[in-house]
Amino acid sequence: MHDDEITQVTTASPVSAEPVVVLRGRRRRWVSVLAWLVVSPFAVWAALRLIPADVHFRWVQLVAFTPYVALASAVAPLVALASRRWAALAAGLVVAATLAACVVPRALPDGGRTPSGPALRILSSNLEVGAVPPSALVDLVRRLRPDVLALQELTPSAAEGLRQAGLATLLPYKAELALEGPRGSGVYARYAITPGQAIEYGFGQMVATVEVPGAGPVGIVSVHPCAPSDEMGYPCWADGLAALPRPGGAVQVLAGDFNATLDHARIRDLLGAGYRDAADATGDGLTTTWPFRPREFNGFGIPTVTIDHILADRRVGVRSFGVHRLPETDHRAVYAELVLPRR
Protein backbone atom coordinates (compact mmCIF):
# COMPACT_ATOMS: atom_id res chain seq x y z
CA MET A 1 0.00 0.00 0.00
CA HIS A 2 2.73 2.40 0.87
CA ASP A 3 4.64 1.65 -2.33
CA ASP A 4 1.50 2.19 -4.41
CA GLU A 5 0.99 5.59 -2.87
CA ILE A 6 4.55 6.54 -3.68
CA THR A 7 4.05 5.39 -7.27
CA GLN A 8 0.89 7.42 -7.63
CA VAL A 9 2.55 10.56 -6.39
CA THR A 10 5.55 10.25 -8.64
CA THR A 11 3.48 9.54 -11.74
CA ALA A 12 1.13 12.45 -11.05
CA SER A 13 3.86 15.09 -10.60
CA PRO A 14 4.75 15.60 -14.33
CA VAL A 15 1.06 15.90 -15.23
CA SER A 16 0.36 18.58 -12.59
CA ALA A 17 3.29 20.71 -13.83
CA GLU A 18 1.82 21.09 -17.31
CA PRO A 19 -1.00 23.54 -16.37
CA VAL A 20 1.55 25.66 -14.54
CA VAL A 21 3.68 25.93 -17.68
CA VAL A 22 0.64 26.79 -19.80
CA LEU A 23 -0.47 29.44 -17.27
CA ARG A 24 2.95 31.04 -17.28
CA GLY A 25 2.99 31.13 -21.08
CA ARG A 26 -0.38 32.81 -21.21
CA ARG A 27 0.70 35.33 -18.61
CA ARG A 28 3.80 36.23 -20.61
CA ARG A 29 1.69 36.75 -23.73
CA TRP A 30 -0.74 39.03 -21.89
CA VAL A 31 2.11 41.05 -20.43
CA SER A 32 3.52 41.52 -23.94
CA VAL A 33 0.10 42.52 -25.26
CA LEU A 34 -0.28 45.03 -22.43
CA ALA A 35 3.13 46.59 -23.11
CA TRP A 36 2.34 47.03 -26.81
CA LEU A 37 -1.15 48.32 -26.09
CA VAL A 38 0.43 51.12 -24.05
CA VAL A 39 3.04 51.94 -26.72
CA SER A 40 0.78 51.78 -29.78
CA PRO A 41 -1.48 54.85 -29.25
CA PHE A 42 1.54 57.08 -28.69
CA ALA A 43 3.22 55.60 -31.78
CA VAL A 44 0.15 56.36 -33.90
CA TRP A 45 -0.01 59.91 -32.52
CA ALA A 46 3.69 60.52 -33.27
CA ALA A 47 3.31 59.19 -36.83
CA LEU A 48 0.29 61.39 -37.53
CA ARG A 49 2.04 64.42 -36.02
CA LEU A 50 4.94 64.03 -38.46
CA ILE A 51 2.69 64.03 -41.54
CA PRO A 52 2.87 67.53 -43.12
CA ALA A 53 -0.85 67.74 -43.82
CA ASP A 54 -4.24 67.73 -42.12
CA VAL A 55 -4.98 64.01 -41.93
CA HIS A 56 -8.64 64.32 -40.95
CA PHE A 57 -11.04 66.82 -39.44
CA ARG A 58 -10.95 65.04 -36.07
CA TRP A 59 -7.15 65.02 -36.09
CA VAL A 60 -7.21 68.82 -36.49
CA GLN A 61 -9.10 68.96 -33.21
CA LEU A 62 -6.90 66.43 -31.41
CA VAL A 63 -3.41 67.49 -32.49
CA ALA A 64 -3.65 70.66 -30.38
CA PHE A 65 -3.10 68.49 -27.31
CA THR A 66 0.25 67.08 -28.47
CA PRO A 67 2.21 68.65 -25.54
CA TYR A 68 0.04 66.71 -23.08
CA VAL A 69 0.44 63.50 -25.10
CA ALA A 70 4.20 64.02 -25.27
CA LEU A 71 4.33 64.21 -21.48
CA ALA A 72 2.12 61.14 -21.06
CA SER A 73 4.21 59.14 -23.56
CA ALA A 74 6.88 58.63 -20.88
CA VAL A 75 4.54 55.98 -19.44
CA ALA A 76 5.06 53.67 -22.44
CA PRO A 77 8.77 52.87 -21.96
CA LEU A 78 8.27 52.64 -18.21
CA VAL A 79 5.58 49.98 -18.62
CA ALA A 80 7.74 48.11 -21.13
CA LEU A 81 10.75 48.27 -18.80
CA ALA A 82 8.75 47.04 -15.81
CA SER A 83 7.43 44.11 -17.84
CA ARG A 84 10.86 43.39 -19.41
CA ARG A 85 9.57 43.63 -22.96
CA TRP A 86 12.67 44.94 -24.68
CA ALA A 87 11.24 45.46 -28.17
CA ALA A 88 8.36 47.44 -26.70
CA LEU A 89 10.85 49.38 -24.58
CA ALA A 90 12.88 50.34 -27.67
CA ALA A 91 9.74 51.39 -29.55
CA GLY A 92 8.45 53.36 -26.55
CA LEU A 93 11.74 55.23 -26.23
CA VAL A 94 11.71 56.15 -29.94
CA VAL A 95 8.10 57.36 -29.74
CA ALA A 96 8.67 59.40 -26.58
CA ALA A 97 11.81 60.95 -28.07
CA THR A 98 9.95 61.83 -31.28
CA LEU A 99 7.16 63.60 -29.41
CA ALA A 100 9.67 65.34 -27.15
CA ALA A 101 11.55 66.60 -30.21
CA CYS A 102 8.29 68.15 -31.46
CA VAL A 103 7.49 69.90 -28.19
CA VAL A 104 10.55 70.55 -26.01
CA PRO A 105 12.25 73.13 -28.30
CA ARG A 106 9.37 75.53 -27.59
CA ALA A 107 10.59 75.80 -24.01
CA LEU A 108 14.09 76.78 -25.14
CA PRO A 109 15.13 80.16 -26.61
CA ASP A 110 16.07 79.71 -30.25
CA GLY A 111 19.09 82.02 -30.05
CA GLY A 112 18.15 83.76 -33.28
CA ARG A 113 20.06 86.84 -34.37
CA THR A 114 18.48 90.16 -33.41
CA PRO A 115 18.87 93.00 -35.92
CA SER A 116 19.91 96.47 -34.77
CA GLY A 117 16.86 98.29 -36.11
CA PRO A 118 13.87 99.94 -34.44
CA ALA A 119 11.62 98.12 -31.98
CA LEU A 120 7.98 97.30 -32.71
CA ARG A 121 5.81 96.41 -29.72
CA ILE A 122 2.65 94.50 -30.65
CA LEU A 123 -0.33 93.42 -28.55
CA SER A 124 -3.13 91.11 -29.69
CA SER A 125 -6.38 90.15 -27.97
CA ASN A 126 -9.53 88.20 -28.76
CA LEU A 127 -12.37 90.26 -27.24
CA GLU A 128 -14.83 87.33 -27.15
CA VAL A 129 -17.56 88.97 -29.19
CA GLY A 130 -16.66 92.41 -27.86
CA ALA A 131 -17.19 91.44 -24.21
CA VAL A 132 -13.90 92.82 -22.85
CA PRO A 133 -14.56 96.11 -20.99
CA PRO A 134 -13.03 98.88 -23.12
CA SER A 135 -11.48 100.54 -20.07
CA ALA A 136 -9.62 97.33 -19.16
CA LEU A 137 -8.14 97.02 -22.63
CA VAL A 138 -7.19 100.71 -22.79
CA ASP A 139 -5.53 100.39 -19.36
CA LEU A 140 -3.46 97.46 -20.66
CA VAL A 141 -2.49 99.48 -23.76
CA ARG A 142 -1.51 102.39 -21.53
CA ARG A 143 0.64 100.09 -19.38
CA LEU A 144 2.37 98.10 -22.16
CA ARG A 145 2.58 100.98 -24.67
CA PRO A 146 2.31 98.83 -27.82
CA ASP A 147 2.94 100.39 -31.21
CA VAL A 148 0.38 98.07 -32.80
CA LEU A 149 -2.79 96.53 -31.37
CA ALA A 150 -4.52 93.66 -33.20
CA LEU A 151 -8.05 92.79 -32.09
CA GLN A 152 -10.31 89.85 -32.94
CA GLU A 153 -14.08 89.50 -32.44
CA LEU A 154 -14.37 93.27 -32.67
CA THR A 155 -18.03 94.32 -32.67
CA PRO A 156 -19.36 97.80 -33.56
CA SER A 157 -20.27 98.45 -29.91
CA ALA A 158 -16.78 97.38 -28.78
CA ALA A 159 -15.16 99.68 -31.35
CA GLU A 160 -17.29 102.59 -30.12
CA GLY A 161 -16.53 101.73 -26.50
CA LEU A 162 -12.79 101.77 -27.21
CA ARG A 163 -13.10 105.16 -28.86
CA GLN A 164 -14.94 106.55 -25.87
CA ALA A 165 -12.40 105.00 -23.48
CA GLY A 166 -9.61 106.96 -25.16
CA LEU A 167 -7.86 104.38 -27.33
CA ALA A 168 -7.42 106.94 -30.11
CA THR A 169 -5.26 109.14 -27.88
CA LEU A 170 -2.80 106.23 -27.47
CA LEU A 171 -3.10 104.63 -30.92
CA PRO A 172 -4.51 107.30 -33.26
CA TYR A 173 -4.42 105.31 -36.52
CA LYS A 174 -6.72 102.40 -37.27
CA ALA A 175 -8.00 99.92 -39.82
CA GLU A 176 -11.30 98.54 -38.53
CA LEU A 177 -13.59 95.77 -39.67
CA ALA A 178 -16.14 95.91 -36.84
CA LEU A 179 -18.87 93.30 -37.37
CA GLU A 180 -21.58 91.75 -35.25
CA GLY A 181 -20.77 88.40 -33.68
CA PRO A 182 -17.26 86.94 -33.71
CA ARG A 183 -16.39 87.94 -37.31
CA GLY A 184 -14.85 91.40 -36.82
CA SER A 185 -11.22 92.44 -36.37
CA GLY A 186 -9.08 95.55 -36.33
CA VAL A 187 -5.57 96.96 -36.31
CA TYR A 188 -4.67 100.11 -34.33
CA ALA A 189 -1.28 101.80 -34.41
CA ARG A 190 0.88 104.58 -33.11
CA TYR A 191 2.05 105.23 -36.67
CA ALA A 192 0.25 105.90 -39.96
CA ILE A 193 -1.78 102.99 -41.34
CA THR A 194 -2.84 102.08 -44.84
CA PRO A 195 -5.81 99.69 -44.66
CA GLY A 196 -5.65 96.68 -46.96
CA GLN A 197 -8.20 94.23 -48.30
CA ALA A 198 -9.46 92.11 -45.41
CA ILE A 199 -9.13 88.34 -45.71
CA GLU A 200 -12.70 87.09 -45.42
CA TYR A 201 -13.45 83.39 -45.16
CA GLY A 202 -16.39 83.33 -42.78
CA PHE A 203 -14.49 85.57 -40.34
CA GLY A 204 -12.82 88.84 -41.32
CA GLN A 205 -9.06 89.15 -40.83
CA MET A 206 -8.08 92.82 -41.11
CA VAL A 207 -4.99 93.61 -43.18
CA ALA A 208 -3.02 96.84 -42.82
CA THR A 209 0.37 98.37 -43.55
CA VAL A 210 1.99 100.37 -40.76
CA GLU A 211 4.74 102.90 -41.54
CA VAL A 212 7.33 102.31 -38.79
CA PRO A 213 9.98 105.07 -38.51
CA GLY A 214 13.39 103.72 -39.44
CA ALA A 215 11.99 100.45 -40.79
CA GLY A 216 9.48 101.45 -43.46
CA PRO A 217 6.22 99.63 -44.22
CA VAL A 218 5.32 96.60 -42.09
CA GLY A 219 2.42 94.40 -43.07
CA ILE A 220 0.10 93.47 -40.19
CA VAL A 221 -2.73 90.93 -40.21
CA SER A 222 -5.17 90.54 -37.32
CA VAL A 223 -5.52 86.78 -37.65
CA HIS A 224 -8.76 84.99 -36.83
CA PRO A 225 -9.83 82.07 -39.01
CA CYS A 226 -13.01 80.18 -38.15
CA ALA A 227 -12.73 77.70 -35.30
CA PRO A 228 -12.66 74.05 -36.47
CA SER A 229 -15.25 73.20 -33.83
CA ASP A 230 -17.32 71.12 -36.23
CA GLU A 231 -16.95 69.60 -39.66
CA MET A 232 -18.76 72.48 -41.37
CA GLY A 233 -16.30 75.00 -39.89
CA TYR A 234 -13.22 73.07 -40.97
CA PRO A 235 -13.02 74.37 -44.60
CA CYS A 236 -13.46 77.96 -43.37
CA TRP A 237 -10.61 77.41 -40.86
CA ALA A 238 -8.34 75.82 -43.44
CA ASP A 239 -9.01 78.48 -46.11
CA GLY A 240 -8.56 81.32 -43.60
CA LEU A 241 -5.09 80.09 -42.66
CA ALA A 242 -4.09 79.25 -46.23
CA ALA A 243 -4.95 82.82 -47.32
CA LEU A 244 -2.50 84.46 -44.91
CA PRO A 245 0.39 86.22 -46.69
CA ARG A 246 3.77 84.52 -46.80
CA PRO A 247 6.97 86.44 -46.04
CA GLY A 248 8.60 88.34 -48.85
CA GLY A 249 9.05 91.98 -49.79
CA ALA A 250 7.95 94.16 -46.90
CA VAL A 251 8.27 92.78 -43.38
CA GLN A 252 5.15 90.83 -42.37
CA VAL A 253 3.69 90.21 -38.91
CA LEU A 254 0.69 87.96 -38.23
CA ALA A 255 -0.93 88.41 -34.81
CA GLY A 256 -4.11 87.02 -33.35
CA ASP A 257 -6.20 84.00 -32.55
CA PHE A 258 -5.12 81.38 -35.08
CA ASN A 259 -7.40 78.68 -33.66
CA ALA A 260 -4.37 76.44 -34.16
CA THR A 261 -1.21 75.46 -32.31
CA LEU A 262 2.34 74.93 -33.49
CA ASP A 263 1.46 71.25 -33.93
CA HIS A 264 -1.08 71.94 -36.69
CA ALA A 265 0.26 71.32 -40.17
CA ARG A 266 -0.99 74.68 -41.46
CA ILE A 267 0.93 76.59 -38.79
CA ARG A 268 4.01 74.48 -39.48
CA ASP A 269 3.58 75.44 -43.14
CA LEU A 270 3.65 79.14 -42.19
CA LEU A 271 6.79 78.58 -40.12
CA GLY A 272 8.38 76.67 -42.99
CA ALA A 273 7.55 79.55 -45.33
CA GLY A 274 9.74 81.87 -43.25
CA TYR A 275 7.85 82.98 -40.13
CA ARG A 276 8.98 82.49 -36.54
CA ASP A 277 6.70 82.31 -33.53
CA ALA A 278 7.58 84.98 -30.95
CA ALA A 279 6.77 82.75 -27.96
CA ASP A 280 8.77 79.87 -29.42
CA ALA A 281 11.73 82.19 -30.11
CA THR A 282 11.93 83.31 -26.47
CA GLY A 283 11.35 79.86 -24.93
CA ASP A 284 7.75 80.63 -23.96
CA GLY A 285 6.15 78.44 -26.60
CA LEU A 286 4.38 76.20 -24.08
CA THR A 287 2.60 79.13 -22.42
CA THR A 288 -1.08 78.42 -22.99
CA THR A 289 -3.60 81.05 -24.09
CA TRP A 290 -7.06 79.39 -24.26
CA PRO A 291 -9.51 78.58 -22.68
CA PHE A 292 -9.28 80.42 -19.37
CA ARG A 293 -12.89 79.82 -18.48
CA PRO A 294 -14.26 76.26 -18.18
CA ARG A 295 -15.06 74.84 -21.60
CA GLU A 296 -16.39 71.40 -22.48
CA PHE A 297 -16.30 69.31 -25.63
CA ASN A 298 -18.54 66.23 -25.78
CA GLY A 299 -18.83 66.35 -22.01
CA PHE A 300 -15.09 66.59 -21.34
CA GLY A 301 -13.25 69.65 -20.04
CA ILE A 302 -10.83 71.19 -22.55
CA PRO A 303 -7.22 71.52 -21.29
CA THR A 304 -5.62 74.89 -22.04
CA VAL A 305 -3.70 75.11 -25.30
CA THR A 306 -1.68 77.70 -27.23
CA ILE A 307 -3.73 79.09 -30.12
CA ASP A 308 -2.93 82.83 -29.90
CA HIS A 309 0.33 83.74 -31.61
CA ILE A 310 2.51 86.53 -32.94
CA LEU A 311 4.38 85.37 -36.05
CA ALA A 312 7.02 87.58 -37.66
CA ASP A 313 9.18 86.80 -40.63
CA ARG A 314 12.70 85.61 -39.94
CA ARG A 315 14.28 88.98 -40.66
CA VAL A 316 12.67 90.20 -37.43
CA GLY A 317 14.23 89.71 -34.01
CA VAL A 318 12.21 88.87 -30.89
CA ARG A 319 13.30 90.67 -27.74
CA SER A 320 10.51 89.57 -25.37
CA PHE A 321 7.14 87.84 -25.17
CA GLY A 322 4.38 87.73 -22.56
CA VAL A 323 0.72 86.95 -21.98
CA HIS A 324 -1.83 89.06 -20.09
CA ARG A 325 -5.29 88.47 -18.66
CA LEU A 326 -8.25 90.64 -19.56
CA PRO A 327 -11.72 90.34 -18.00
CA GLU A 328 -14.67 88.75 -19.83
CA THR A 329 -12.60 86.80 -22.37
CA ASP A 330 -11.35 83.24 -22.24
CA HIS A 331 -8.26 84.15 -24.28
CA ARG A 332 -5.07 85.57 -22.88
CA ALA A 333 -3.75 88.60 -24.74
CA VAL A 334 -0.31 88.07 -26.27
CA TYR A 335 2.41 90.71 -26.39
CA ALA A 336 5.81 90.77 -28.05
CA GLU A 337 8.59 93.26 -28.52
CA LEU A 338 10.04 92.78 -31.97
CA VAL A 339 13.16 94.29 -33.51
CA LEU A 340 12.84 95.21 -37.18
CA PRO A 341 15.59 95.34 -39.78
CA ARG A 342 16.67 98.91 -40.43
CA ARG A 343 15.57 100.38 -43.73
**What is the overall shape?**
elongated
- Unreliable spans are 1-13
CATH architecture of the largest domain: 4-Layer Sandwich
Number-wise, the strands total 16
> How many DSSP H or I helices?
11
The total domain count is: 2
If you consult CATH, what is the topology of the largest domain?
Deoxyribonuclease I, Chain A
What is the beta-strand fraction? 15-25%
Q: Give the averaged pLDDT, no decimals.
A: 91
Report the span from N to C terminus. 111 Å
Helix percentage: 25-40%
Q: CATH top level of the largest domain?
A: Alpha Beta
CATH homology-level superfamily of the largest domain: Endonuclease/exonuclease/phosphatase
Radius of gyration: 27 Å
Estimated structural class: alpha+beta
Biggest sheet: strands, sense, closure?
A: 6 strands, mixed
- SSE succession: HHHHHEHEHHEEEEEEEHEHEHEEEEE
- Describe the strand arrangement of the main beta sheet, using strand numbers: 3-4-2-1-16-15
Q: How would you describe this protein?
A:
Helices cover 39% and strands 24% of the residues. α3 runs antiparallel to α5 (86-103) and α4 (75-82) packs antiparallel against α5. It folds into 2 domains: 2-105; 112-339, Endonuclease/exonuclease/phosphatase (Deoxyribonuclease I, Chain A). It is elongated and about 90 Å long. The protein has 343 residues and is α+β, with helices and mostly antiparallel strands. The strands form 4 sheets. A 6-stranded mixed beta sheet has the order 3-4-2-1-16-15. A 6-stranded mixed beta sheet has the order 5-8-9-10-14-11. Strands 6-7 form a two-stranded antiparallel ribbon. The chain is built from 11 helices and 16 strands.
